[in-house]
Amino acid sequence: MGVHGLTTYLRENRIALARTIKLPPGGILGSERTRVVIDGWSFIYELIRCADLPWVHGGEYDTFARLIERVVDAWVDAGLQLYFVFDGELFGLIMGVGVISPVRSCPGSVSLQLTTILSSSGPYPKIKFPIVISRITKTSIEGGLLFFRTSTTARARPYFLDETRMLPPHAYSVCVRILLDLASSSDPPYHRYNHRVEVHFADEEGDSYAVALAGRLRAYVAGRDSDFVVLNAEGYRGYIPLDEMLWTEISVYTPYYSEAGGVYSSMDGDAGDDVDSDGFKVVHKPSGRRRAALHRRTGTGLVPPDGAPGLETDLILSFAVYTPIALADRLQIPVSLLPLLGALVGNDFTGAPDDTTPSTSISLILRKQNLQHLFFNRTLTLSQRIVHVATTLRSIKKQIGSVMELVDAAVSALLDAPPDILATDERAAVIERIADATLQYAISPQDGAEEGWVSDVCPIHTRDACPLFALLSRSPPEQSFSPEEDAIGSDAPNGILIDADEADPRARVASLYVDAYRRGALDPHVLDILSSGTCWPRLFLEDPDKETIATSIGRPIREWCYALLESGVGLLEKSAHEAPDESDEDDDDELVDVEEDDGDVDPLAPLRGALKQLGETQEAADDHGDTANGDDSPAPTPRSQIITEYVRRGTRLAAEEVSIPYMRDLLNSISISAPLHQEHPDLWPVQLWPGDTRVSILLRAFNSDISSVRTLRGPHLSLVLALRWVVFRMHARAAETSASKERGQERWRRSEVRAALWSFMWSISGAGDAAEELDELSSLQIAIRERNIQLVAQLSMALEVVGHLSEVLLLSDYCPNPMRYFSGMRFHGILTKSIPAELICIDGDLWETCVEGLEDSFMEEQRSKARKERKKGGGRPMPTHPPKA
């Protein structure tokens, strides 16, 4: 979220709006710390921007992880108490329906009171979908298209890479994992973080959650979103822009004893520099107390300056604070009118400033187009628009009976067109959309004590008001239950109160998911599936002429996630036969993309064919349905329930409907039966099965249930599953269309798997080591090749679905994400021979596990090309075969 132009307005009026806070040096901190709630996504973006980390190779996550530790360490030393807040699912779980009542503050002015009441009818309409689609299209899709259509020489230039910069796809998961480790680690080096770093996960969009939490804690909110100066809550102390933080390093030069000469000296020189006839230096006794020399260095942003070696240094942090009250006073409007001002000026719910999507339908214009085109003359700057709206709101003098009347009056005054330009229903649509955008700033009054959670399921909501709990739970909680004795890892229930009794399996699964989400063990993208029936796979740089990896690599595993969630807690009733939403109508002017064809072959045809053949051999007469214990399972019936996936199709983001398979059919396809003690008439949720059975499902879903894989655990297991999956999927795609040379070329080579294994540097333990290696890699001028980019994209998507399936199976601690150890530059450097092959050293057992059973799935190495390069001369020949492990 963000009000268009408000960040610029704050900077232009910084002297009048901001107050500067300077914290004392860490060495003289008192017992009271400054509490700051950090917007997690703003932290990620700002840290990557400040550090200027390379992105085109797939992400330098190892360096990124060390930078996170360095910044948090400096913040804690500076005296901050940190509360990181990350967004919930992308579009809200159960959004609030606002009940607005006008409050007369003084004659001639109106202020708004917003009260949020939870809707029991389900998720809020897809109000934010258009802006999200627009942003993904412009960054990931159009940026990737520009990259692949630009010459190799031009796209390697720094300015081009800066213009097309993308966020590495695993930045979120790596950041969350590092912060959780810092907040909960029992290792002695991290004891200093105890009770000084907390990580929270919002039920919906994190902005309002962060301000509500800051109000309870009487804290500031730090981020990169101007909405934080519009949102308000009792106790909220103000907004700190992350890019306006200032580090000041004070180096103190003091006299020290020189071991070489045994005399006192100083970096500033001694008072006596006399040398006698024998060449000895004459030392003069100081006539008074020597004053230490102070040297200052400053740095703006998150990353503190490097300390000079051998010197005593103090880091002092200062920052600017903006408050809603100061902004309202500057604009001369009541503070409660700031949300309406934000909606009228423009935010994420009323269209982006550069949204120029062509459309001929008035209904589509009102739903998709930027409403600000109706309100403002194009000659007005963004800052002038803010002043113009504030002036308009102040000018409304007539008696207002309701908030909708106020919105109507404001819209009428702002319309930059004749009053009859819009029909009555069109005008009503504009007013409704402005009101909806205003309601996004509503924050419920907070109950409970300042310290601790408001309830046992949410830090800021009571049980009845918690959107997450309302989504996953169906009835009032009554009792707790004990963990499964054979559950693997710490993803089992921890005594959280659940809905109904133990006999309700879905209530137990819901309780497990609430607990996992609060602990950071359930990705917010999984909640999108539950709340809105949509899935938004993360997009990164990939070849636009090929089928998107979100489909070829990710969809088969996501179908497992859909089926598990539907059988475990239930999904929205969303049928493929439902009438399409008006916002999804096809535009007559829309360009149709030409996609990868390969003879109209369905990449999932073998899976569908196998399921169909399995269904034809089964009995279809049992209406009640047995558990999957034998050959008497009922035949699969067509499934009408769907999930809408938003994936790249050619050069645009398209909505594709995916039917949710039955859990029983998927289990039959991998030859897994329900536990023998099963007595429930329906299939018991898999999430409640024994841990070893859930592990078997995880391994077989990735076609990797072999003894060598079963011996692995932790990040190594995730990496092996991902590598085996991409090798298997690329080989399967090539086998489907043996006549397609292009798909045959998509298969992985053995050397590429070895390069991927070596790209994970498990041993780097310090920020200095990671930064030093990054500098060395940057100096190599590693070539950017399209095939290598595609390999990294495939590996990233495979690791994403490995994480999602393990989380849905409640096995996240058993199979954590390994990307915190990954370096894309290292991977590209190995493949382009920029890094000598003799330096590559990988675990032989890990390599054998990756290729076991897949020996025939690899593509041949490029022998002939290597020979041609040798004949050209130009340096000593590079080895074509990687050394044996």
TrEMBL record:
Gene3D superfamilies: 5'-nuclease. SUPFAM superfamilies: PIN domain-like (SSF88723). Coiled coil: none annotated. Residues 865-874 have a biased composition (Basic residues). Residues 615-640, 859-885 are annotated as: Disordered. Belongs to the asteroid family. This is PIN domain-like protein.
